[in-house]
TrEMBL record:
Co-factor requirement: Mg(2+)
Reactions this protein catalyses: heptanedioate + ATP + CoA = 6-carboxyhexanoyl-CoA + AMP + diphosphate
Record-given protein name: 6-carboxyhexanoate--CoA ligase
Biological or metabolic pathway of the protein: Metabolic intermediate metabolism; pimeloyl-CoA biosynthesis; pimeloyl-CoA from pimelate: step 1/1
MF terms (GO), sorted A to Z: 6-carboxyhexanoate-CoA ligase activity
Membrane spanning stretches: none
Subunit-level organization: Homodimer.
InterPro entries named in the record: BioW (IPR005499)
Alphabetical UniProt keywords: ATP-binding, Biotin biosynthesis, Ligase, Magnesium, Nucleotide-binding
Enzyme Commission code: 6.2.1.14
Species of the source: Bacillus norwichensis
Taxonomy, superkingdom: Bacteria
HAMAP family, per the entry: BioW
Reported function: Catalyzes the transformation of pimelate into pimeloyl-CoA with concomitant hydrolysis of ATP to AMP.
Length: 243
């Protein structure tokens, strides 16, 4: 599902909401109704364009364990941004890439997808915006995971962790930096295989509609394979309690 105001996204419409689910055929009606409600009740306003589509998945679904989660309560946006830079360095992103990104970030803030950023050239590989798709987490399993770890059982947390887990599991992935374009949601995260999902409570100011989604990648890996994986490989997150 994608929803916008002022016309479709490709016609200059303002993005309002987006989402997806992996469903059985029998569950399509429920999934469509869920996505319809999500698009119509977003904090960014009421859309005047919405598109909901479904397609059959023929590829085998891969199971991934959710990334480990750690939350950081920070006093200010400035300290949150500083922590994000520190975590990116720990994840393997060079200082030069982070400094270059600081200069380019304003131009990416309204990008309709994720920007792939090569840590070796310190330049974006694809600025058109990559949309990650075909991923989900069964509600009952997510509820069990959330209860076990004592984390919020909300849809936003679930969707972010599903995406971060898929994005960082590929060999080409180094780290992800993300915060929402929702003006009333200022929490974001840094994620990587090495660090897990590092949730930071303040990464932008209230009222700011500029979002960020950057995938730091190793450009010496097969990037076309990574892009195909992000767009087409079906993923289910599956958690099992350690014995």
């Amino acid at each position: 599902m994608r929803a916008a105001k002022g016309g479709a996204h490709e016609q200059g419409g303002k993005h309002i909401s987006g989402g997806e689910q992996i469903s059985t055929f029998e569950g399509i009606t429920h999934a469509v109704n869920f996505l319809l409600e999500k698009g119509l009740t977003h904090s960014k306003g009421s859309p005047d364009f919405m598109q909901i589509q479904f397609e059959c998945i023929h590829d085998s679904v891969r199971l991934l364990k959710p990334l480990d989660v750690q939350s950081h309560q920070i006093e200010s946006v400035e300290k949150g941004q500083a922590l994000a830079r520190q975590l990116l360095r720990q994840a393997g992103v060079p200082k030069s890439s982070i400094e270059t990104l600081d200069q380019l970030l304003p131009s990416y803030s309204r990008q309709g997808g994720a920007v792939l950023f090569d840590i070796h050239s310190d330049r974006p590989i694809d600025e058109r915006g990559i949309r990650v798709s075909r991923m989900d987490w069964q509600p009952d399993n997510y509820e069990q995971w959330a209860a076990y770890h004592g984390v919020p059982r909300n849809l936003r947390m679930k969707e972010a962790l599903v995406l971060a887990t898929k994005v960082t599991s590929h060999p080409a992935a180094v780290a992800e930096l993300c915060w929402s374009d929702d003006p009333d949601y200022i929490t974001g995260y840094v994620a990587s295989k090495r660090l897990g999902y590092q949730r930071i409570n303040k990464l932008k100011k209230f009222g700011d509609e500029q979002g960020c989604r950057i995938f730091f990648v190793n450009g010496r890996e097969d990037i076309e394979s990574y892009i195909h994986y992000l767009k087409k490989q079906p993923i289910f997150i599956r958690w099992e309690e350690a014995e």
